[in-house]
């Protein structure tokens, strides 16, 4: 495993490990962990085994896109209150892309194909995801390959992941990507905001 993976993700290497690497991994697993609520944020990225390739053309770059929520309160308290009362959880204060409530830039060069690993890390909210003027080729969902298909919009349930190829086939410019809530129940409160990136 490597913590210095691109874009801050965790990279998993398949194959044999040295006795020192195995001992270090065992030490990490046995170490007591104390985490503060809502402080761990990232994507677990699984790549093909060494010497193997994807079932689709290799992308130029891979970028995790984490769709999440911003809370001005402790999200653990939100879950506890919903569990205690049996009501729906309070709504978040904002949605985020890669932990930023404001615009974040994800560069894609003209003519290249990149892989976006889109993750819905929201607590309890299905989210729509779209990149302006671009088609997305879905090639995987929840760590499994899919038969590729083209769409312009994704809908992800909480904790769902979707791997999509995006091609820089539009005139060079800045194109927004956006995430917005899916409202499935009338008169139920939900965060009616949109988060964006470029």
TrEMBL record:
Protein localization: Secreted, Extracellular space, Apoplast
Alphabetized InterPro entries for the sequence: Cu-oxidase_2nd, Cu-oxidase_fam, Cupredoxin, CuRO_2_LCC
GO biological process: lignin catabolic process
SUPFAM superfamilies assigned to the protein according to its UniProt record, in alphabetical order: Cupredoxins
GO molecular function list: hydroquinone:oxygen oxidoreductase activity
Keywords in alphabetical order: Apoplast, Copper, Lignin degradation, Oxidoreductase, Repeat, Secreted
Enzyme Commission identifier(s): 1.10.3.2
Residues in Plastocyanin-like domain copies: 62-197
GO CC aspect terms: apoplast
Family matches, as CDD domains: CuRO_2_LCC_plant
Top-level EC class: oxidoreductase
The keyword Oxidoreductase is assigned to this record: yes
UniProt keyword Secreted present: yes
Signal peptide coordinates: none
Catalytically driven reaction(s): 4 hydroquinone + O2 = 4 benzosemiquinone + 2 H2O
Coarse class of the protein's main subcellular location: secreted
PANTHER family with a match to the protein in the record: LACCASE-5, MULTI-COPPER OXIDASE
Protein name, as recorded: laccase
Organism: Gossypium schwendimanii
């Amino acid at each position: 495993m490597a913590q210095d993976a691109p874009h801050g993700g965790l990279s998993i290497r398949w194959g044999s490990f040295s006795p020192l690497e195995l001992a270090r991994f065992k030490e990490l697993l046995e170490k007591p962990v104390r985490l503060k609520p809502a402080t761990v944020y990232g994507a677990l990225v699984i790549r093909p085994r060494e010497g193997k390739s994807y079932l689709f053309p290799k992308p130029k770059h891979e970028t995790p896109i984490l769709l999440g929520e911003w809370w001005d309160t402790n999200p653990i308290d939100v879950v506890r209150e919903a569990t205690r009362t049996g009501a729906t959880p309070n709504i978040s204060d904002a949605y985020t892309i890669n932990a930023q409530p404001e615009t974040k830039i994800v560069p894609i060069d003209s003519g290249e194909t990149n892989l976006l690993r889109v993750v819905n890390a929201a607590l309890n909210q299905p989210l729509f995801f779209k990149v302006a003027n671009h088609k997305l080729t879905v090639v995987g969902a929840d760590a499994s390959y899919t038969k590729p298909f083209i769409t312009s919009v994704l809908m992800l349930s909480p904790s769902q992941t979707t791997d999509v190829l995006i091609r820089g086939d539009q005139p060079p410019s800045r194109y927004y990507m956006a995430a917005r809530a899916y409202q499935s129940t009338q008169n139920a409160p939900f965060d009616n905001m949109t988060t964006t990136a470029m």
